Amino acid sequence: MSILSISRGAFHRGRTAALLAALQLGVGAAAAPGQEQERECGERPELRVTVMDESGAVPLPGVVVAVQWTDGGRRPARGRTGEGGHYGVCAPRDAEGAVLWAEVGPDGSREVTVALERGGTHEVELRVVFAMSRPGRLLGRIYDARTDDPVATAAVSVVGRPGVVESNRQGQFVIEGIPRGERQLEVRRLGYALLRHPIVMSPGITTEVEVGLVPEPVEMEPLVAIAERSRRLEIKGFYERKHWGELLGLGQFFSEDDIERWRPTRMTHFIVDHTMLGSGLMNRRSGCAVNVFVDGMSVAVRDLDSVVLPIEVGGVEVYRGPASFPGRFSGSDLRCGAVAIWTK
Fold first, then answer.
1. Are 74 and 121 found together in one domain?
2. Same domain, 219 and 272
3. Virtual CA dihedral for 245, 246, 248, 252, nearest 10 degrees?
4. pLDDT (tens digit, 9 = 90+) per residue, 132-148?
5. Whole-angstrom Cα distance, residue 279 to residue 213?
6. What is the mean pLDDT of residues 306-326?
7. What is the model's pTM?
8. What is the span of the domain harbouring residue 244?
9. 286 found inside a domain
10. Among 1, 27, 269, 316, whose Cα sits 20 to 30 Å from the Cα of 243?
11. Within a domain: residue 1?
12. Counting runs of H as helices and runs of E as strands, what totals does the chain give?
């Protein structure tokens, strides 16, 4: 981990046009917002969703729209956009809020949270960001190759691009907006040898890098390790929550590498063995079973092992109480905690 000529706009427009042509072949007759849904919802809250491309100029039919109710315990809604990129859904009568997002294969939109009002109509626009049109991001940590201690105030840059960032007290840094392709990472710090190392950036993906700097008088090779994140988990916000959750102590997070290292036979066994949750995924403090979500959908604890196998899992989040809950996992029984499992 350290790290034909065609314009991006032309490529994006061509890819969007091809996607539209493919989607229109299988689009159902989903009602546009304000038509059939307007008559059916009555006093129930109504969501009128329009899905567009990243520019907001091209509507996208045939795109999957997912709706997760924030007050928990309810079956999520999923459907495809119809002509004009529209999708309409009536919320449960007493629903207080919803989290919505759109999915197109490995690509998707950002999540949008909506507060619902009884009898209200809520217009929501979701913009799908295609990975090939997005620059990459570099997330890294700088440490002393001899002592493993973090190195603060190291100057980190990508050769040929303006701007320099500094590592923080934990040795961490982030560089946004790096175009795809081969680049060269440069790290400078007084008292350490200059490091330059090639990295390959993928579009729309966060690349993680760990850099071991070598004190100048010591003759040894610098240590660089590179890993690329799962695009699916990147879209779902897993890595962002993991970064801040670990930094602030808000929960426990496990990656695909963690699961492969321990090779569990069942997900319930893995969670009980590596968290403070008890048998049956019971919260030892409150004595009740945690809420379980698989890819954002609520699953009963007793059904978890039949729904997903460890080999299918790309990430796990464990929250023990309401204070650390992300908004999309909040439910009516916040005291119990939550386990969020994401497949690869």
1. yes
2. no
3. 70
4. 667 888 999 999 999 99
5. 44
6. 85
7. 0.43
8. 233-343
9. yes
10. 269
11. no
12. 7, 21
